Amino acid sequence: MNQLTIRGQLATVSRAKQRDAQAIAYLLTESFHPNPGWWGWTHGWLRAGLVQDIEQRFTRSAHPYTCLIATVSGTVIATVEVAQRSIPGEWWQSMPSDPLYISNMAVAPQWRRQGIARVLLQAVEHVALEWHCPQLYLHVMADNLAASQLYTNLGYHPPRLEKTWAFFPTGSHRKVLLHKSLTSSTG
Description:
187 residues; 4 helices
């Protein structure tokens, strides 16, 4: 799909395959749960569950679905998923029927702020146009300023601010639903 030179190394963006599920699960675990503290013993279970879930998405997805990965020398350094599905949120808010939803965007810590997330999102836009689905949505945590800035720079706009409840630790977090409308010249 796309290539990018990062720190003198060639990063390649491609569609993931079922055999990539374990590397994707490890990346997601390390990105979204980097310092588990005393919860560290759960990482193995979390990864195993993610591997199984990701493998099932490759084989049982009823709607359009793809997972993109960026690799350097065969190692997965970044991932993003896009699928046609309903958007989580408030039941009373009007949303398009089964738009494309971007999820699980993760870049390995040592590869962040190198442009790979931008390249992955541009690849998602090409997939969306292939599927003739010009409306993209995603959620970002309100306190993730770097990601919010990236999405804003790429033309995503917030139609709503939401509140979500965390299981552990107790408390709530705010997230923002972002939207981008594509045209055939996007890229």
